# Entry
Amino acid sequence: MRMSQAGWNNVIIFAMLAMILLFNFSSNKLISNSEDDDALRALLPEGIPIMTLQYGSAKLERIGRGWRATQLPELDELAMENLIDHWQQVIIQPTDHTLTSSPLPVVVWLAGESNGRVIQLFNQEQHLYLTYQQATYQVMNLHYADLVPTGVE
# Structure
């Protein structure tokens, strides 16, 4: 195949345009199929450790490899680790359920983030709901007692 330099430049330009169009259309299909609005998902990102859980004035914070509870005297080391593990395993699903109970605000501080994530928990009708970033979710795999230590109201 013998072409001039200008001919090869035109072939490359049209090939690049075709690839751009192909990637643009295929990425729209991939994104719309992978992000279903009603899909189950994790509340917190995987692999990022929790540094502090704050329930009003009660606090659970990481100190080295262990945990320290402030205004939560009933918690031993194992109970604190279980509480943190439960928070990191929360699976949520979007819902439009009307929340009528009063919320329990919880601030979750993650490693590497300068602001805490404010989450409001609602224990209602044998189910656990939460609001986060102006959206309402149902917690699918845990109960209120799994995420809130005894003595916190």
Notes: The chain has two domains: 1-35, 41-147. The radius of gyration is 24 Å. Residues 5-34 form the longest helix (30 residues).
